């Protein structure tokens, strides 16, 4: 990869994800303002500098008029983003419906609420139709911008149909697909009416990646049991064609967090927080407000801890920061009220005139505020019921070089496989166990904390987002070369 002047050419990488890393807000008929949006994938890919990356995805707004679409496309181009325009009906059926009502709970082993189950079963076919149509619309945009030699990297459960659509356009395209959620046991996947079609569409990719070896194994089992294909140590084989399947655990841009702690504004904020919570141990939860994150379970475990440990009642505070997501969905509204109700009850029960045990914020924090919070935390509580990886646990560890706080981590988060030896692993459904782990964390000796932190810090700083992306793309390049060599033989 060299230019005529000898300088290396960065390989073009088309990152295709449901959402672009920016949110667009319309300011006038032809004027838009753009803001970088959050989320795990965005955080991870922000750290990747090795490729000439372009993003293709939905900007999160309905833009029915051509003038608006033209203006937005132009504004996004400056951020190397290319929009896919989806109308309201498609968004409703594809995004709210098939992606978030069916695939998301299923892949996290959460059943649908009883009252929704029949309705969802009835609307299943139309939602799946919209899902395929939306994936085709993404493929159209990719195809329009694709240049020979590009690598196309499709992301997540929203775009399982995309590898097939792309290969139908051009069989020579290098296509990778990565899943950010868990891939469930084949026994769960086989309940999906569209189980086979989805698996076949993913298998059209050259390389299929997951966060953990377990998820990869579940996927291969689903292909062998449901499609009757052959699973090999390399992946899945269908009539001589191999789809490579492997684990690529994601990381974070750890340097960005470590550097942020030196910024004067962050140091100032750290000092404020230390003064504010002087004499108390700080426990922290940072999550999107989603059922998979186990927020009510976490707070109930904290209540149990306070109940059983009167000594700690005025010496510990739990800061729970929860970014609202999918706020228009009744299920999520219910979760918000449930969390508020539990927090109110516990604060009423254990609070005093001067202090409450739980501070719950329903909002996003900016990067610097988040780093300061991570740095002053004594115990982080990550109690997801299921989580593909969970980057919050990584971010906390990156900011703890001075304090060497303790990470309590759900065994059902992918991160348990990488940070398990340094964290206290818990079953988030067992609030007695989580309460006991809080006590263990608060009483842990400095020596033990140091040892556990060392292990995790080493992992987080050596398995970065950048390395993750580079490994995936180089493996994709190699996979395609090997496949071509096999064909030639
Ligand atoms: P998410 O479910 O979004 O990601 P996670 O990996 O924890 O979960 O990433 C969340 C990101 O949002 C983190 O970078 C965090 O800092 C940020 N964030 C969360 N709450 C915040 C708040 N209140 N204020 C500011 N920022 C906040 C999905 C999967 C995960 C997987 C990632 C990446 O569900 O399992 O780890 O993708 O693959």
TrEMBL record:
Family classification: In the N-terminal section; belongs to the glycosyltransferase 20 family.
Full protein stretch here: 81 to 569 of 935
Domain of life, source organism: Eukaryota
Class of this enzyme: transferase
Taxonomic lineage of the native organism: Eukaryota, Viridiplantae, Streptophyta, Embryophyta, Tracheophyta
Keyword terms of this UniProt record: Glycosyltransferase, Transferase
Gene name in the database record: TPS1_1
Name of the protein in its database record: alpha,alpha-trehalose-phosphate synthase (UDP-forming)
Enzyme Commission no: 2.4.1.15
